[in-house]
Specification:
The chain is mainly α and 217 residues long. 76% of the residues lie in helices and 0% in strands. It contains eight helices and no strands. The chain has helices at 2-7, 13-25, 32-42, 47-51, 57-85, 91-134, 140-177, 185-203. Helix 5 (57-85) packs antiparallel against helix 6. The longest helix is centred in the middle third of the chain and has 44 residues, at 91-134.
Length: 217
């Protein structure tokens, strides 16, 4: 994506390098469809998932849809790689695979955003309920618990909000890559770099660590 931003769609060495790098990295994602579908493979009807969760069935279906769509995204991406690597010769099949892959990425990202917004709503509700239960308690221990509850909730809310933004950036990028949105190569490159940096930040340990406020003296 950084190389796409640099070449801005213009032919030349940078664009050629970008194509080669993109093709080379696909090999390391070969098991991604299976990994994404693992929860469905181990629990096809969602019996365990529904039993261990109080989430509404609609949200369960959204989560399942996200898994299926992301599996299609990675699977289609593999066919696109196979065409560029010379394994697949049918250009029409590769073009269709790219469309399926990108639209699935878009759909999976939207599902991810919906799941995170639902979890954010549930977090706010649970936090308010806990703080209300602590309202009548007095003393330093109760105050510490209230402060810790708020700090943890704020950190988790920030992470979920950040994840929603990340999902929407990916969704926009997916539509741009399949030409469903009229985005220029430099814009696509910028969105790709942004999505990658955001993903790295999400994976960093302690990136959304609760910030406990100092006690008042």
């Amino acid at each position: 994506y950084a190389l796409m931003f640099i070449h801005a769609g213009q032919p030349g060495k940078v664009k050629k390098v970008q194509g080669n790098v993109a093709s080379a990295r696909k090999v390391f994602r070969v098991m991604k469809p299976v990994e994404t579908l693992a929860p469905i493979i181990t629990d096809p009807f969602g019996t365990k998932a529904l039993k261990n969760s109080d989430d509404p069935k609609l949200m369960f279906l959204v989560k399942r849809a996200q898994m299926l769509l992301m599996a299609l995204y990675f699977g289609g991406d593999h066919l696109v790689w196979a065409k560029s690597a010379g394994v697949l010769e049918d250009a029409e099949t590769a073009n269709m695979a790219k469309k399926v892959s990108m639209y699935s990425w878009f759909g999976g990202s939207v599902c991810k955003a919906l799941v995170e917004m639902f979890e954010l709503s549930k977090l706010v509700s649970n936090t308010n309920a806990k703080l209300k239960s602590l309202q009548d308690r007095e003393g330093e221990e109760a105050e510490d618990e209230r402060r810790e509850t708020r700090a943890k909730a704020d950190a988790m809310a920030l992470k979920r909000t950040f994840t929603v933004c990340h999902a929407f950036v990916q969704a926009t990028l997916a539509l741009g890559l399949v030409d469903a949105l009229p985005l220029k190569p430099r814009t696509l490159g910028f969105l790709g770099v942004t999505a990658s940096v955001m993903n790295i930040y999400l994976l960093l340990p302690g990136s959304f660590k609760p910030q406990l406020k100092a006690k008042r003296g």
